Amino acid sequence: MIVGGSRRRVKVVLTLVVNLSLLGACFWRSYGKATATHADLLVAMARKGADLVASGRLTAESMPELTYPLERADAFLHAAAARSTDQPPASLRALQDLRARYQEFLDALDRVRREKSGEAARAALAEPLATVERAGEGVRAALHAEGRL
Fold first, then answer.
1. Which of 67, 84, 99, 131 has its CA 20 to 30 A from that of 105?
2. One CATH from 3.40.50, 3.30.420, 1.10.10, 1.20.120 for 31-145
């Protein structure tokens, strides 16, 4: 209860509280789809990056195309972690793992693009790519287990 406030002020404060709680509910309503989208995009971009390195078409100037989805996933993870309760959902932990695997992939990709090309590059990136793909599958499995997909 607000002491000394007018009825109008109480209504405004109450409206703000209700709207803020609805914003949190809206986030979790779309959480499953957004999480799946981030996971799918990270996996797709890893595949694209591996193909670009193997074909010799990836340069340092084109790396931001591959790092931007990581930045967006970081922002999403930060927002989701801020809204989660004591124990974040398994799908959030799985997306955090995918994010880490994708970062490792980008590090390997940058190194390999300077050292190798063609099938040698594809072979060097096979395991880091497979790790990203497995982590992406882990996100989807967690979302299914939570009933979010």
1. 84
2. 1.20.120
3 state DSSP class of 3 = coil
Q: Which two tokens stand for residue 100?
A: 């880490």
* Short-list 82, 93, 100, CA closest to 28: 82
For 49-62, how does the pLDDT look when each residue is reduced to its tens digit (9 = 90+)? 999 999 999 988 99
Distance CA 87, CA 2 (A): 32
Distance CA 117, CA 44 (A): 20
Q: What type of residue sits at position 87?
A: Q
Question: What's the Cα-to-Cα distance from 3 to each of 6, 9, 12, 20, 132, rounded to whole Å?
Answer: 9, 11, 14, 22, 55
User: In this structure, are residues 69 and 103 in contact, taking their beta carbons and an 8 Å threshold?
Assistant: no
